[in-house]
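New here. Your pick:
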Amino acid sequence: MGRLLLAFALLWSGVGSAHPLDDSRLSITVDGVTLDLRWEISLRDLDAMVDLDRDRDNRISAEEHQAGRAAIEHYVRPHLRIDDAEGRVCEGAQPAEQSFVRRDDGSFVTLRYALSCSVLPRRIGIAYDLFAKEHPAPLTFVTVTAGERVWAEVMTDDRRSLVIDLGHSGAVGFVGFFLSGTAHMLEGIDHLLFLAVLLLPLMLTGDRRPARRLVEAAKTLTAFTLAHGLTLWLAALGLVAIPSRLVESVIALSIAATALDNIRPFLGRRRWLVAFGFGLVHGLGFASALGPLALPPLELALSLFAFNLGLEAAQLGVAIPALLAGYALSGSRRTLLPLGSAAAGIVAIVWFAERAFALSIFP
């Protein structure tokens, strides 16, 4: 059983350490018939389609970007279409201006195009088919600015085109940001594992009073929600900035510490305090998605609200079935609680080693 547990935990940690897609950001400024377009795309994502990582170290350097500039332009431009939504394509000079951007969460290329429409556009159509079907497209946060009006939308793998009506006042695509929040929670394996470890004692409790167990679970989830919602807002507003590697390393430690507490308690009996404390760190992890968005205060607030609502919907969608399943397995508490916690702890330690010390345990 022990060897099987170790093998499963290491396999799962390899899945969790695989590189997730990085969000891209597309901004368009409308000035009459002229469109200033800036598109920031992760170089790690582009490497799946354009061979950029020459030294195969799973990182794209400024030198590798420089060597691949022509290949990036040749690949990206034919797969992007901007028009006036009446079938007239807005053309621009080629090649695009390119700049290398290194952030603490990776390397990106910013492509800038100066486009011109043949007539004054009443609507802007945006479409791209970047990345083949076997390579899902990352979430793309889109902002369109015309004077003082701003539109904010999210394009997904299933929604690679949209139309912005410039005749209306600026707006936030609430559904798009909501769905992006659910996606970030469901794709965040480390966040889900933390929730599982946090709720495991409640899932497997021998208490046959479901109401009491649900109240405790509600307190725990509410504390986690309030905490990560707080730091998500602070980070997205630029009031808190902590290096991504540090945040991701502490998230891994939070899983390991909570797993150990399940086996040999040391964090105290008030589980909701543990959820709140570690939730503050997890909020910084979620904030990496929305932090770089340059939106006016109202639009940013609406985007954050929709995004956070999506996070919570996904969280409840995972937690409620888990609690119900745990109720049926509560008779196996003495076995499942230590084994499940130990497996999660092994996974978290592997993640911590990879994140804190840049070890390529699973390249």
Remarks:
- The radius of gyration is 23 Å.
- The chain has a mean pLDDT of 82.
- Residues 203 and 322 are 7 Å apart (CA to CA).
